[in-house]
C-alpha cells in the first residue's frame, strides 16, 4: 500500500497518496478540487474551472488523462484558440499543466509512461 | 527503398497473406520460428512474386525438420546472416 | 529524452504503426496505441493504419465496462488531439469482415493495399502488431 | 550499424524472446552497436530476476542480464507494462512501497520516450513478438 495522508474537507477525511493524488477518485467534488488546488498554491477562478470541467468530461469519455499536447488541443478545440496555448495553461496550472490540472480535476495519477 | 519482412507464424495463420498484400516487389521475406513451415510449401511460395527474395532462418528450420524438405527458392540463413539482411535492407518489418 | 552528442540525427522520424489486432482479447491494440501517442508527444511524424482484425477497433458503440476494461474505441477518438491526423483503415480488411463505413468511428481515411504498402515504404520505422 | 531491439514476448511462452536474444548476440559479435533494448508488454518478463529454471534448460532472463552487463547495453523496461506485471526495479519498488525489486539491475524502468529516442538514434529497429 502506498502511504497516505489525509485532508479534511467539510468534515470528511479525504485520503491522498504521497504525490498528492486522490486515493479514491470517487472522493472528488468541487470543494475537494479547491483544496487540492490550494495545496498547489492555486486559487481556482472561472478560468481554472472551465479547464477542470473540460478535463473531467474528457476523462469520462476517453478514460485517459491527456498529455500536455492533447490538453492544449482539447482546450483549443472546446474553449477557443486564445486559450488553447501552452502559455495560457501554464499560467493557470503551474509546472506541467496536464499533470497539475489532472490532479486538481481528480483524474488518475499518470503512469509516467509519457 | 527495400524492406525485409520477417514472418513467424505457420501457413494456417494467414500472416503471410497479410504481409504479401502490402509488400513491394523488391522486398524480401525471412521466415522465422513457426514461419519456416512455409519453406516447404509450394502454395505459400507460389503466392510470393518471383522478384521477392525468400529466406528461412536455418536454426528454426533445423529444429522443425524443414531444412531438408525446403524448396529451392528458399535460401536458408543463420542468425548472423539475419543480422546482415537487416543492414542490407532499409528497414525491417516484423509480422508476428 | 537523452541526447547523444555524437549521434547527430534528425529530431523527427516518420513512423508507421500498423495495428492488426482486435481489441480486448489481447493487449496488442493498446500497446500499438500507446506507442503512437508517445510518438506524437515527442513530435514524430506518425501514420496509423488499421489492418486485418485491427479494423474491429474502429467499430462505433463499443462499451467494455462489462468486461472490466477501458473502451478502446473511446481512446482512439483522442488521436486527433494528439496531433495524429494520418489515420487509415484498410478497405479490404473492412470488406472481408463485412464492415461498412457507417459503422466506423469518424475521422478514418479508407485506403487500399497499395497505399498501405506506400506508408510502409516511406516510413523510417514500422511497428506492426 | 546501430540497432535497437523491441521485445514484446514473454520468455518460454513463445520462441520470440529466444530468437531476439540470439539476434542481439549475433549483431554484437559482428561489431554492430546495440543502441537499446526495449522490453514492452509481456516482454518485460525477460527482465525478471525472480525465476528458477530446470538445470538442463536455459535461463533466458539470466542470459539477457549477462549479455546486457557484459556489453554495457542500454536496456529499458517499459514502466507501465512493468508495474502491471510486477517487474520492478528498486526505485519503482520504493516509490510504490512494494518492498523488494524483482527486475535485474541491468535494466532500467523507464517510459516510452526511450523507445521513440531509439527510433531516432538507430539505423534499424527490429521487433520480436
Automatic annotation (TrEMBL), chain A:
Pfam families: DsrC (PF04358). GO terms for cellular component: cytoplasm. Its main location: cytoplasm. InterPro entries: DsrC-like_C, DsrC-like_dom_sf, DsrC-like_N, DsrC/TusE. Keywords: Cytoplasm, Transferase. It is an enzyme of class 2 (transferase). One of its GO terms (molecular function) is transferase activity. One of its GO terms (biological process) is tRNA wobble position uridine thiolation. Belongs to the dsrC/tusE family. Its EC number is 2.8.1.-. The lineage of its organism: Bacteria, Pseudomonadati, Pseudomonadota, Gammaproteobacteria, SAR86 cluster. The active site is at residue 113. This is Sulfurtransferase. The keyword Transferase applies. It comes from the Bacteria. Part of a sulfur-relay system. It is found in: Cytoplasm.
TrEMBL record, chain B:
The keyword Transferase applies. It comes from the Bacteria. Signal peptide: none annotated. Pfam families: DsrH (PF04077). Keywords: Transferase. One of its GO terms (cellular component) is sulfurtransferase complex. GO terms for molecular function: transferase activity. One of its GO terms (biological process) is tRNA wobble position uridine thiolation. NCBIfam families: sulf_tusB_dsrH. This is Sulfurtransferase complex subunit TusB. The gene is dsrH.
TrEMBL record, chain C:
It comes from the Bacteria. The keyword Transferase applies. The lineage of its organism: Bacteria, Pseudomonadati, Pseudomonadota, Gammaproteobacteria, SAR86 cluster. The keyword Transferase applies. Belongs to the DsrF/TusC family. This is Sulfurtransferase complex subunit TusC. Keywords: Transferase. GO terms for molecular function: transferase activity. PANTHER family: PROTEIN TUSC. It holds the Pfam family DsrE. It comes from SAR86 cluster bacterium.
Automatic annotation (TrEMBL), chain D:
One of its GO terms (biological process) is tRNA wobble position uridine thiolation. Gene3D superfamilies: DsrEFH-like. Its main location: cytoplasm. Keywords: Cytoplasm, Transferase. This is Sulfurtransferase complex subunit TusD. InterPro entries: DsrEFH-like (IPR027396), Sulphur_relay_DsrE/F-like (IPR003787), Sulphur_relay_TusD/DsrE (IPR017463). It comes from SAR86 cluster bacterium. One of its GO terms (cellular component) is sulfurtransferase complex. The keyword Transferase applies. It is found in: Cytoplasm. GO terms for molecular function: sulfur carrier activity; sulfurtransferase activity. It comes from the Bacteria. Belongs to the DsrE/TusD family.
